[in-house]
Amino acid sequence: MGVVVGVALISALIAVVAGWPGSHLYLGFTVLSRASWAVKIILRAIIGPKFVNLANTLPASANTDTASIISFFVFIIIFLPLPMIPPEKLQLPFRITFIMITATMFGMLGWAINAANGPGELIHTPSSKHGSALSWGAVYGLQSIVGSQASGCLGQSDWTRYAKTPNAALFGQLVAAPIFIIVTAVCGILITSAAATIYGEYIWNPFELLLAIQDHSLSPAARAGTFFAGLGFLVSQLALCQMLNGISTGMDMAALCPKWINIRRGCYILTVIAIAICPWNYVTNPGTFITVLSGWSVFLSPMTGIVVSDYFFVRGRQYHVGDLYVGNPSSAYWYTAGFNFRGFLAWIVGMAPLLPGFARAIQGTSSGNGWDHIYQISYFYGFFATLTVYALLYVAFPQERQHGTSPFVLAMHAEMLEGVEEDSRSGSGSGSGFAKGEDEEKGGVGVDGRGAAKTFAA
């Protein structure tokens, strides 16, 4: 339980500091970095034994079966219209998703405890580990869960930049998210414990639990229950794919190739890639797959440390926002031929010591030596080591240029950007140095109310 609470609090704090630039300067992660299978359950519930007993026409080398491949492509077809919804209009769909998945979670909890006549024995079972082994196991559990959320924490600014006010995201990050992380984890433990009493084995994956229910009985009641539970998970997975995969990747691709790719096209490119890599092959060895996923913190925690260090300590929460959109030597962030050696060196320092332990974890040869222990705290080491080294490198090697083509934007004065947006809409062109003056006369880069670059022709 302590690990769950720790995960909730640490994730909340990281989300706040990583999302602060987005909520105050309206900048996404990509700009700042310049300075699933619930469908099968539903189909089985609808079609019944005919789908369960569907003949498999695929060879064993395919690592999947006909029913699963049909479910996968049905999911893709359902997902395809979602990228048409602009990110700023996803609040209502996400509210509906939250209600459905919450109802699903508590519905499964009520069924499991009722069917097992109690919460089961798991919560009363003592740990098989003791002493340092138990302590390091708890630490690794803490960092592996935080590490699995590393991508979402790092990209917080992609979403906080849509906040109505600079502090609007804080309640969700600091209060709502930790509470529901804890509640979800507790429900998962109780459901797994009760299900073990019913089926004689621990089933941690909720999708597999629904399949076990259907394998045990395909009565109308079981089919109806698993259908609605599967529907809740389906909607949840669609929302996660849209938010964490589709839109985030679309934003990155749009920033890299803005002339040819927008967010929507980036989503569809990712969908094609998702099909091409045959994801069912990764599920055949879930242990290695999960290890690799949790190991993303090896690479992403140093990147988070760089973003936080640069914004809060090196820049003092001040950016030449317009220069972030300038890709030539006139930008304050061009550094040396467009390359900042401080960021790269700090990332290496935060990432390299974690690689031996990461490789041993994938190979299953961990023995508890020093490299393994460093990997067990990979997120915390990568974040704090990179944050510190990056700041120290700027002390040792100060940036030669501090001026750029656009005025500084102070975090405390970010509301001025909203006035720029209103002026540009009204066509007055007054009231802001971004909209008139030297930039307008000579041709330069300004910023609108959401951090988007505007080029003024001479």
Automatic annotation (TrEMBL):
<feature type="region of interest" description="Disordered">
    <location>
        <begin position="421"/>
        <end position="458"/>
    </location>
</feature>
<feature type="transmembrane region" description="Helical">
    <location>
        <begin position="266"/>
        <end position="283"/>
    </location>
</feature>
<protein>
    <submittedName>
        <fullName>Putative ncs1 allantoate transporter protein</fullName>
    </submittedName>
</protein>
<feature type="transmembrane region" description="Helical">
    <location>
        <begin position="66"/>
        <end position="85"/>
    </location>
</feature>
<feature type="transmembrane region" description="Helical">
    <location>
        <begin position="175"/>
        <end position="204"/>
    </location>
</feature>
<comment type="similarity">
    <text>Belongs to the purine-cytosine permease (2.A.39) family.</text>
</comment>
<feature type="transmembrane region" description="Helical">
    <location>
        <begin position="379"/>
        <end position="397"/>
    </location>
</feature>
<feature type="transmembrane region" description="Helical">
    <location>
        <begin position="224"/>
        <end position="245"/>
    </location>
</feature>
<feature type="transmembrane region" description="Helical">
    <location>
        <begin position="333"/>
        <end position="359"/>
    </location>
</feature>
<dbReference type="Pfam" id="PF02133">
    <property type="entry name" value="Transp_cyt_pur"/>
</dbReference>
<dbReference type="GO" id="GO:0005886">
    <property type="term" value="C:plasma membrane"/>
</dbReference>
<feature type="transmembrane region" description="Helical">
    <location>
        <begin position="289"/>
        <end position="313"/>
    </location>
</feature>
<feature type="transmembrane region" description="Helical">
    <location>
        <begin position="92"/>
        <end position="113"/>
    </location>
</feature>
<dbReference type="GO" id="GO:0015205">
    <property type="term" value="F:nucleobase transmembrane transporter activity"/>
</dbReference>
<dbReference type="InterPro" id="IPR045225">
    <property type="entry name" value="Uracil/uridine/allantoin_perm"/>
</dbReference>
<keyword id="KW-0812">Transmembrane</keyword>
<dbReference type="InterPro" id="IPR001248">
    <property type="entry name" value="Pur-cyt_permease"/>
</dbReference>
<keyword id="KW-1133">Transmembrane helix</keyword>
<keyword id="KW-0472">Membrane</keyword>
